[in-house]
Amino acid sequence: MKFLIGILVFFMLLSGCSKYTQETNTIQCSFSGSINNSYSKKDTIEKLMHNYMQQGIPGLVIAIYTPSSGYWGSAMGFAKIETQTPMELCHLQYLQSISKTYLATLILKLHEEGKINLDDPITKYLPEKFIKYIDNANTMSVRNLLNHTSGMPDYLESPSYITFVLQHPYHFFTSDEFLSYIENKKQQFTPGSKFEYSNTNYHVLALIADSLGGNHDDLIRQKILSPLGLYNSFYRNIKGNHNLVNSYMDRFSTGIVENVSQLQQESISCAKGDDGIIATPFDAINFLKSLMEGNILSDSSLAQMKTWVNDEHGNPIYGLGLYHVMFSGIEGYGHGGAGAGAASGLYYFPEKNIYVFLGTNIGTLVDGPIVEKVIELKLKVLDLILHD
Amino acid sequence: MMWRLIAWFFFVVLLSKATEAQNNSSKTYRNFPIILSLQFHSLSFPFKDLKTNFKNAGFGLGTEIALGSKHSWAQQFQLLWYRNKQAGNGFIVYTQSSWRPTIVSNIYTELKTGFGLTYNYRPVASFQQINGNWESAGHRGKWLFTVPVGISLGYNKYSDHTYMAPFVTYQILANANYAKSVPVITNSLLQIGTRIHLSNHK
């Protein structure tokens, strides 16, 4: 009996000695663009960032553009903790759900080209093999998907999806697999009656774009990234890019982080429409700036993007791929993004004519003390930037 | 799949109640057998991803004591270790009350539940910032309160001498306090093992 207990204790001790790793290669880089180092709020923002970096955030970047001050940005912490590779403005950040703004832009481009009518039912464009997964698909319009008023359940809310991802961090999900998580689930409300954020909406929009143009990946590159010269922006084909940051997660909400870079890369590679863009901070800003300045879409399309649906309190919340936000009492448009191993935010504040990007390589999907600090820092930085 | 398995289990239990036969368990059952088991662990939703329940091996050691004279109720105590490269290794210590009706002859079913603790290691090395510096925290894990619920099928070949009672069990473990935004996470175990009732004869 003592022998058996001894064997069991031996294996329990061995449990802490696995050599399994999720690290990926991230190289040191140096930012070659020009930024305005005399930006008036540089010192106060960097001091604030520095204070928060002492509280467990692996790496952080902030980038700003205003017509009067030009571009400014700062990076702190590590792009990869294991090799002490410093975070730089040249590193690629995960944009996570900000990718929805890119896909919405593509759908509106297709609309301008007469290839899709936003108020048609999705069943007109979506291949039959995917329609079978969606309850009452014929009642949902393309616009309902774009502004999250379709009532389609979110695959990301499925507990069996979360456990499967944690157990199979390298699994590449197909669209059928993603949609199987909402199969047999009822439509949550009558389309148009309510706003309820759902990643599935944008996955289905990507499938619609595929059915219209062959491959929505190529369309995003051909119609958005290349014409705007966003050469440091990539969609889904992210593996092997050594400028991409490593990703970390506080699995147990205890303030201890572990590397989840391979899980992160796999989940971004197989995402469609609801995620998938990686970019440098200034490429992200230049995308939103081009969009807001009318360099991608017509005025009419942009106006549709900024036609807001309201939340349950009657306040404007979401347009077509754009959130309507209020930070420190100032109105903004943009999107946030949260993943297993990264988080970001990209906003334009028209009243101040300021563009802001914030990115970190700690995942905010799993809440915890570090994530609380990230959120706190975001609010303080935006408050600093938006007020004199 | 889940409903089919549950329906199957209750069908078997009803059958057992209808056909429960006299047996000689009260003569030969002995408390504190050694329970040895081979485990297959999966971080999965109940009755989902069943393929993974044939990977991630580990093993367990336990014992039990009968509750009452008919031995259709028992209290089990188990210590399990499992290896799970992707989701993190771990060990589990728990106790379960087991209801064990006989189906026919020496074949029995089992329904059991209880409570315990799981220590879930991280799958990869981790880091913690202390005084502004990143320091290794190894695979340090977390204790999770566990509620295990299991169904089994087993075989009792009673004997006055040492005898084995093999079984196969499917357990669902509800682990509380996994993370702040994941208050409960489910794991599952496929267990194949045997109770070894040692002989009374010295």
Overview of the structural elements:
The complex is a heterodimer of chains A (388) and B (202). Chain A is an alpha+beta fold and 388 residues long. Chain A has one domain: 3-Layer(aba) Sandwich (Beta-lactamase). Chain A has helices at 2-14, 42-53, 99-112, 128-131, 142-146, 159-167, 175-180, 199-213, 216-225, 261-270, 281-292, 299-305, 369-386; strands at 59-66, 70-80, 85-86, 93-94, 233-235, 248-249, 257-259, 277-279, 309-310, 316-318, 323-327, 330-338, 343-349, 354-360. In chain A, the strands form 4 sheets. In chain A, strands 3-2-1-14-13-12-11 form a 7-stranded antiparallel beta sheet, sandwiched between helices. Chain A is globular, with a radius of gyration of 21 Å. The model of chain A has no long low-confidence stretch (mean pLDDT 93). Chain B is mostly beta strands. Chain B has a single domain, classed as Porin (Beta Barrel). In chain B, 11% of the residues lie in helices and 56% in strands. In chain B, a hairpin with a 6-residue loop joins strand 2 and strand 3 (73-82). Chain B is elongated. Chain B starts with a helix and ends in a 5-residue tail after the last strand. Classes of the chains: A alpha+beta (388), B mainly beta (202). Chains A and B meet through helix 1, helix 6 and strand 7 of A and strand 1, strand 2, strand 7, strand 8 and strand 11 of B.
